[in-house]
Amino acid sequence: MKMSDVAKLANVSPATVSRVLSNPDLVSKETREKVMEVINKVNYKPHIVARQFRTKETKIILVVVPDITSAFFSKVLRGIEHVAVKNGYQVILGDTENDTDREQEYINLLLQKQADGMVLLTARQDKAKLEEIAEHFPMVLACEYMDGSNVPTVSIDNISSARKATEHLIQQGHTKIAHITGPINVVLGRDRLRGFQQAMMSHDLEIDSAYIQEGDFSFESGYNQMLKFLALETPPTAVFAFNDEMAMGAIKAVKDSNLLVPNDVAIVGFDNIKMASVIEPNLTTIDQPKYEIGKKAMELLLNLINGEELQKKKFVMKDELIVRESSEIVKNIL
Fold first, then answer.
1. Which one has a higher pLDDT value, 137 or 293?
2. How far is CA 30 from the centre of its chain?
3. Which of 66, 186, 259, 299 could pair with 264 as two cysteines, CB 3.0-4.6 Å apart?
4. Quick check: helix, strand or coil at residue 62?
5. How many helices (H) and strands (E) does the chain have?
6. What are the CA-CA distances from residue 111 to residues 95, 201, 213, 308, 332 (Å)?
7. Cβ neighbours, 10 Å, residue 105
8. Residue 156: phi, psi to the nearest 5?
9. Could you give the dihedral angle defined by the CA atoms of residues 246, 249, 255 and 256, in that order, rounded to the nearest 10 degrees?
10. Residues 170/134, Cβ–Cβ less than 8 Å
11. pTM for the complete prediction?
């Protein structure tokens, strides 16, 4: 599909199609909508004019998040925003609500050059497609990632950090350890499950399939999956949750069952969101350098926008286990 084909279908000149894509403010709203309707219908991608588009700056950065309600992303976004504003860019936020079709819609805005670059905090598109787009347009992945992809990426090592969280529970003397996973169709869910499994196997501990339940990131799913664990004939004595929100849901379920955290069930989360240090008991968790991840991702994106060749495309940031009350057994003082 060529630009001239789009022009014929929209009954306008190729120059008008070009203006709609590069300088939409110069085209009437009626004509713009007519042309965009055709572009979306035929899935036209203006790769052939990508080089021309690079010379026209919007001074806008598009940041796409999977769930804006998640407390985790606030500091990542702040890191992105601080670097962007310092360099004269505005940040526009797109929330996919974990919908891959919505993710594609935001990517289309980059293809139409309505932004100078994009930071994707979600990576659930086809790998080959994202790699093709990254060849033509400035794009950086942050937090989520794709195995074997050449798209510039900033993240932590989720496998080793999940292994670290699980080994902490093992060091506390637990052998019956459960895991509330993230959605398995998301790479972070698979990698943190893998880290949990590696820790258990390295200590020759049984991995009971009943002790692995899939959550959906939310407080409610953590609560419900914890109730499932407690209903087992032999409940686990410790739980590692995919994120802090599900871990806090698990703590609530233990309390509502008239049990104690950590004396009856020890719980570890992931992300170290602000509420982790506020909830009672305070939550043991893996701290991700959220602000630094956002800052580094935006710095890489600026390098790409400025036409610089990246000497390094993969950046693995350092995480840290933060030990708090939820995983250390409180001994009674006589």
1. 293
2. 37
3. 259
4. strand
5. 12, 12
6. 18, 45, 39, 20, 62
7. 14
8. -105, 175
9. -140
10. no
11. 0.80
Distance CA 240, CA 49 (A): 49
Tens digits of per-residue pLDDT, 189-240?
A: 999 999 999 999 999 999 999 999 999 999 999 999 999 999 999 999 999 9
Residue 313, both tokens: 């495309």
Tell me how far apart the alpha carbons of residues 136 and 50 are, in angstroms, rounded to a whole number. Answer: 6
- CB burial of residue 234 (10 Å; 0-12, 13-18, 19+): exposed
Distances (CA, A) of 331 to 174, 263, 326, 328: 16, 8, 13, 9
Tell whether the model's pLDDT for residue 333 goes beyond 60.
no
Q: Give the tokens for residue 39.
A: 């572009």
Dump strand ranges (E) for the chain: 60-65, 90-95, 117-120, 139-142, 153-156, 177-181, 212-214, 238-241, 266-268, 285-287, 314-317, 320-322
Taking residues 251-272, what's their average pLDDT? 98
Phi-psi bin for 188: left (phi > 0), alpha (psi -120 to 50), beta? alpha
Residue given tokens 């891959």 in the structure block? 100
Contact 153, 314 (CB under 8 A): yes
Picking from 77, 112, 70, the residue whose alpha carbon sits closest to that of residue 93 is 77
Give the whole-angstrom CA distance, residue 280 versus residue 150. 43
Which amino acid makes up residue 185?
N
The pLDDT tens digits for 84-110 are: 999 999 999 999 988 888 888 888 888
